[in-house]
## 1
Amino acid sequence: MLWAMTAFLTLLASASAQMGQADFTLQAAPFSPDAVAPGGTSSSNITIGTINGFSGTVALTCQVSSTQTTTSTPACAVSPTTVTPSAGATATVTTTAQTTTVGYSITITGTGPSTTHTTTPLSLTVLAVTPQFTVTVLSPVVPNSVPAGNGAQGTIIINPINGYSSPTRQVGGKPSSGVTLSCGSITPLVTLPPICSFNPPNPPVNGTAVTSTLTVNTFGPIITSAVVRPRHFYALWMPFPMLALLGLGAVAGGKRSRKTRVWGLLALFVMTGALFLMPACGNTAATTTTPNGVTPNNTYTLTVMGVDLDGVVSSNTTSTNSANPTVTLTVTAPTH
């Protein structure tokens, strides 16, 4: 019985010593984001705490693994690499464009003077991504307000994402490629809204951004001809003072004097000028027609979009997470 009592007391002392041993704790938050595209990064916040007055340093490392064969496995780094609890650190996982698109597990290890702790494996997924493109407004239309029948111009830019290149197809026996641009929606809804055109209308995209000029036209009056209003006879009085001046010169100078000739030439010059001025007494008025109608006065919002030969639509046009590429134009009453 004595040996049994002695063993029990020894075990109790050992347990008591272990319960009071100084140590540290290690916790890591889930990686955010928990899924990235190849070339993306993700991070996790690490928290290191103390137990029973632990005062040593802890070295931090992290490892990435996968159950599948991978290429260019993501790299993990912790900053700072050594801490004195209580403290915090950050683990960052970096991928490359060649990283295999599978799920990965990341474990974080803390090594102290006498103990080592490892976190529960954290998950990170590298997603397969589809090359796509966005359409954005590089410069708004100018002018931003026009009378009906006039137009404005702006610039649109197509931005490739993930190495996007527009497909090529044979159309009418000729190779065709590019992103076809259009105004997918126009608000408010009216009978004769503004219309869009682009130059070039379907620019090819080969991994680099390209631009196109947007023209917004409106419907309004069209000048058909200029009508000349009749001249009035009130202008005929203009030569008579000149004739009187000519007669006065003749009386004052006698027969065929030099002064008479001078007065006569002066009168003739003034009369000729008066005759040339007579047409100015008439005026013209333009006649117009509106065969296509008139765009109503309003401020219009036009959403620009693009679609390629495979039916891929500009991703930001239909996205709920980003603003649609739009231009606005105010249409006022026609001037004619």
## 2
Amino acid sequence: MRYAFTLSLTAIGFLAMAQEGMQYFRPNDKNGINVFETTKSDTTPFTKMKVKVGGNFEQSFQTLRDQNTAVPMTEAGYTGNVNSLIPLTNGFDLAMANLNIDAQLADGIRVNLSVYLASRHHEDTWVKGGYVQFDKLTFLHSSWVDNIMKSLTIKVGQFDVDYGDEHFRRSDGGNTIYNPFVENYIMDEFATEIGGEIYYHHKSGLFAMAGITNGELDPTIVAPTKIDSATGKVNQYLPAIHGKIGYDKDVTKDLRVRVTGSFYTDHSANSNTLFGGDRTGSHYYNVMENQNIANGTTLSDANDYSPFSGRYNPGFSEEVNTFMANLFLKYRGLEFFGTYENAEGRAITEKTQRQASQYATDLIYRFTRKENFWVGVRYNSVTAAMLGYAPDITINREAASVGWFVTKNVMMKVEYVNQVYLNYATTNILNGGKFDGAVVEASIGF
């Protein structure tokens, strides 16, 4: 509590000097929808140092129900059937909240600090990360550098790894304002890692990014001692490399086209969490879970337990090589967002890599003059090879949503979801698994 209190006092102090006017900045409200990487459009003149304190808050009401056909099983140390599901009822979920502090330090230099004040995964206060972004380097007093920086952006710190485009549309703890649905993808590719990214922007709409990180959510300086099963040698902590190339342009005043391809690769890690780096948790609560399993013990071939209900983590903690392609089209109020992803990797105990693939399509229609209302549908599917289990498993999700921006800072949405689990072993709690129902969510962003 004392940390939250200290942060609150700090925030109050910043609020006294808070001003608008961030350069190369993604707004925390409705204006941030469909903003991906920040562009080189310099529309805000720099006059002096400015600080902006913002926040996100969400509250949801859940009516989900689940079922499975897994055979009853007992587990040493537990009583009863560890394949039984937690009985669910209608009710409010734990509210989540974020604190965002941005400072314009100099012309073209902005710093960000993001804090999880409360979330499902970490109910206390955690620093999510922070970074400095350079869009100008005027302190070098070089006209040559100034000219180059008209096309470049440099980001350094601990930040959301820019792999794929879905992480720009996902719910992040209390920040759900960018997401037209309640939950993220089944295979949620999101992690904050320490490193740097450099972007090249061309006026034609073409852009490219190259990045390098430590490949870890939780960095360490302790020397490795574990033996890698694939090499027979002591594990190494190699840097992770990622990159993106794309095209994003308003082709006409009514039509925007964005297409990107990106990759992420890490050949040896302490514990890579690209598919499990969310420190806030799923927005579907307690579905497909047994109380004992949710408290921290899993079956040998089981996945997707608290706090990540409804998600799939392939467990590529030692090595991961993955590619994603995204297509975004917006014609007036109609939006299409498509994803194809192919990943392979392994844990340190595995000698060979396994594969996991994912595809998803979102179709959104925003209406009224200011596009304050929307209806949307999503289809998301994952097929993957699990550790220690021969047949590939499949998870399919269908979702439909309706939403309303009461103001640019206040949003309400209702989602109906249906998710099914296929080809799981009869001894796995997800065998014959299914959950469906509605979730109502209110969100504030500023």
## 3
Amino acid sequence: MIQFLAAMWIANAPIVVDRPSTVVHPGELWLDNRGKHIQAHGGGIIKLWDTWYWFGEDRTQDNERDKRYVACYSSKDLVNWKFRSQVVKTTDPDGLGPGFVLERPKVYFNAKTRKYVMYVHLDDRSYKVANVGVFTSNRVDGNYVFQKRFRPLDKESRDIGQFIDDDGSAYLIFESRPTGGFYIAKLSDDFMSVEKEVSFVHAPLEGGGLVHYDGLYYLIGSRMSGWAPNPNLFASAKSLEGPWPDFKDIAPPATRTYGSQSTMMVKVVGSKKTSVIFMADIWKPNTQWDSRYLWMPVEIGDGKLWVPEPKPWSIDVRTGETRIP
């Protein structure tokens, strides 16, 4: 019996990751520095100096059921991630009721106020409130405090995405179901509210993401099929205002985006090349804590965007070069 218990303890003990990895394995367990599966679902990434910070929904199986959690991780190479803290662990922040929803956290750093501002989708369990929530912190991995919730531009808002342009201006992307599309909206100077509509995209999509690459803006989104994956789409335009032409597939439609849903695109500007990484979630609705990630460098340029078949790949963040063996 003692030997059996010892074997069980060893099998379930965290794996301490001593040797840094050099390869991203899409769809597989992605372990942090503690040897635990990264909990950053529906997430977003910001870069501060030489470090990337990844925020996402922490759906750890033994989290308290009446709370919602957001975790923060850091990395200098986009492959090896260090757990920083659970930056949000909140009960119902503003009278949303039992089973309230907190999804898709996205963090912005405001250089003027020196504040870190987090936007999330906040909702009741029936998804009828359709608000964004705003949390702030004085530290990137500090405790984020709830400030308010509202409907941006007085529109319903569910899935949200973030975009920071090359000039540092910050934008919120949000899906508004009654209007049959989604908005690109500029944030106020302090990032605490939505200042104005930049573009309304007449396409019933969610999971929106944006990247500015070689003079064009590329916009991605997922069709609406709940937790089930579907063929994600993209469009390109010369400005954020559009016009956004017909959306096209970013992967073979039969693969349903290789079983994933878009959440963001990450641009890595290196000394030799600028690469763009498609960042997506492989949702497991019945075992959400085991949901995986599909990250792949995309083929992009001249108004075209394509996510290649997922394979192990590597990146040199100094040069910006990616390699798919």
